[in-house]
Amino acid sequence: MKNVLEPTGRITRRKFLVLFVVFYFINLLCLLKMYESLEIQAWVSFAIFGIILVTTIVFLMVAAIRRLHDIELDWKYSLYLLIPPPINFIGFIYLTFKEGTVGPNKYGPDPRNTDVV
């Protein structure tokens, strides 16, 4: 399996869905904990959950870039996913269900031929 932080190559819809669900769930938990920390003025906790939130957003963007590569689109389209919810959620759903390019493309070989998960 390629490095999760490497925005090169392609990933399948299934792998993207798994990464999306895991990271989106972590994002929601971090937002809730940040809100709790803000209410009780626990600034260290707020900062820690903020760092985790930004990190998972980066992981989501890298996964989205690799998924965009699978449907032969450039990384620049991933910037639309930075629009706040629910608009970005529509983009993530599109990436989950859009079928990838069959066979190799300019971003790499077909990930379905080598995918284990």
UniProtKB/TrEMBL annotation:
Record key words, sorted: Membrane, Transmembrane, Transmembrane helix
Pfam families for the chain: DUF805 (PF05656)
Residue spans crossing the bilayer: 16-35, 41-65, 77-97
GO cellular component: plasma membrane
Organism domain of life: Bacteria
InterPro entries the record matches: DUF805
Name of the featured protein: DUF805 domain-containing protein
Organism phylogeny: Bacteria, Pseudomonadati, Bacteroidota, Cytophagia, Cytophagales
